[in-house]
Structure formats: C-alpha cells, structure tokens
Specification:
single chain, 2 helices, binds zinc ion
C-alpha cells in the first residue's frame, strides 16, 4: 500500500497536493464497472444466463471475488491514470527537473486517506 514519494526514474513527486488521490475512487469505480461488464459478457457467452436458475447470482459471487483479488492492481492502475491526467509528459524529462509541489503539500497530512 505504500507508494514512492517520487518517481524512481524521473523524480516526479507522486503526491502533488493534499488528498490528490481521492479522485482515484472514481477511476477505480469505472474500471471495476468495465471489468464487471466484460466478465458478465464472458459468463453469458460461455456459461449463459437464465431466469430459471441461479447462474446470474453465481456470476455475481465469482465477479466479486475476482474484483477483490484484482484490487491491488486496480488501485495502482487508477493512481497511474489519475496522475497521468494532471502531470504533463515532458519530452525532455531527462534534462528538466519536475515541478516543485512542496508549497501545496502538508507533510503532516501526507498519506492521510
Ligand atoms: Zn517518472
């Protein structure tokens, strides 16, 4: 669950303001819905759905376990997507230092979510 304070390659700070990663819950939610729809389609094609038995509820249980197992990767992917929308890619990153975000940080409140 811990995250590097800066990117190990380019030095970009990973937390650029207090509570920066709160928004990743929306990204994670969208990814979860997309994965659920995909797994439902796979389930529908290979196992099928019917109102006469409990196959839909088996899918719900298996999908829930699937999403719980994937949660560490979904969290990381969500954070990566989130920061990629707010920090511009610098073509000359090897020679340019990333922007300083220290005035927007409160170290006492860091990782406080
Ligand atoms: Zn980097």
């Amino acid at each position: 669950m811990t995250m590097n304070r800066t990117c190990t390659v380019c030095g970009q700070p990973t937390e650029i303001e207090v509570g920066f990663y709160y928004g990743t819950s929306y990204v994670s939610y969208a990814l979860t819905i997309a994965l659920s729809v995909a797994s439902l389609i796979v389930w529908w094609v290979f196992i099928g759905l019917s109102v006469n038995d409990n196959r839909f509820f088996y899918w719900m249980g298996i999908n829930a376990v699937f999403l719980i197992i994937l949660q560490p990767w979904l969290m990381r992917l969500s954070r990566s997507l989130w920061i990629s929308w707010f920090v511009r890619y610098d073509r000359d990153w090897k020679h340019t230092k990333p922007g300083d975000a220290s005035e927007r940080l409160n170290l006492d409140q860091g990782t406080n979510w």
